[in-house]
Amino acid sequence: MVSTAPELSERPRPVTRDAQTITRIVRVNHAGEFGAIRIYSAQLWVARHFVPDCCPALEDMLQDERNHCAIFRAAMPPRNSRPCRIMQLWSCGGWVLGFLTACLGRNGIWACTAAVEAAVHRHLDDQLHFLATRDPELHRVILSIRAEELAHLRHAEDRLREKRASLRLLRDVISVLTDMLIWLSTWGDSMHMARALKAAGTGSI
Ligand SMILES: [Fe+2]
Ligand SMILES: [Fe+2]
User: Fold this and answer.
1) What is the pLDDT confidence band of residue 191, given thresholds at 50, 70 and 90?
2) What is the whole-number distance in angstroms between the Cα of residue 6 and the centre of ligand 2?
């Protein structure tokens, strides 16, 4: 588990455009972690009734996401960032996504986890390149969080033993839905962030 880092506020001050991108990074990440909390909460609610063997892993992931969310929330004030204005969208969208995929059973749960965690991992990878020299403390924290997200992804992929076309399609659909939710709930911040990362020659989006 990643610990909160009080030294997050002790960081070099980046130039204005970079500072704006860093502000967006923590806002988008905070929204994403909040969405993950809602997804796993809904999945746990269903899994407790129908697929209880999935619960221990989902509970561990939920605790990790709560910790990540708190870390990004703590990183906001020193970076002039605030939570997204329409977090409610993430709240509802994440819960519905988690609920519907959990209703499909184990494969639905792990296909959703794999799709969401892969999207998260892709975003964090792009951010790490950008932050390495611009915000070393945030870089260090995201590096630790990425290791836990990767563990979530590996866990889900290990359980998707049946690589049927329907599961691949489900993963693709969830990936698109996740990107749409991130874009909508951050009011385009994620798109601006991706452009800035690309302009800095670090992004793959
Ligand atoms: Fe997370
Ligand atoms: Fe995760």
Assistant:
1) confident
2) 22
DSSP string, 144-184: HHHHHHHHHHHHHHHH-----HHHHHHHHHHHHHHHHHHHH
Residue at 204 is within a domain: no
The residue range of the domain holding 74 is 15-199
Point out the ligand nearest to the CA of residue 153. Answer: 2
The model carries a pTM of 0.85
Query: If pLDDT is split at 50, 70 and 90, which confidence band does 205 have?
Result: very low
Task: Tell how far the Cα of 99 is from the centroid of ligand 1, in angstroms.
Answer: 18
Q: How many angstroms is it from 16 CA to the middle of ligand 2? A: 30
- With 0-12 / 13-18 / 19 or more C-beta atoms within 10 angstroms meaning exposed / middle / buried, residue 52 is exposed
Q: Give the pLDDT confidence of 20-55 residue by residue, as tens digits.
A: 889 989 998 998 899 999 999 999 999 999 999 999
CA of 11 relative to ligand 1 center, distance in Å: 23
First vs last C-alpha separation in the chain: 29
How many domains in the chain? 1
CA of 16 to the centre of ligand 1 (A): 27
Interval 148-178: pLDDT, tens? 999 999 999 888 866 677 778 888 888 888 7
Please give the distance, rounded to the nearest whole angstrom, from the Cα atom of residue 128 to the centre of ligand 2.
Answer: 16
Q: Which of the ligands is closest to the CA of residue 29? A: 1
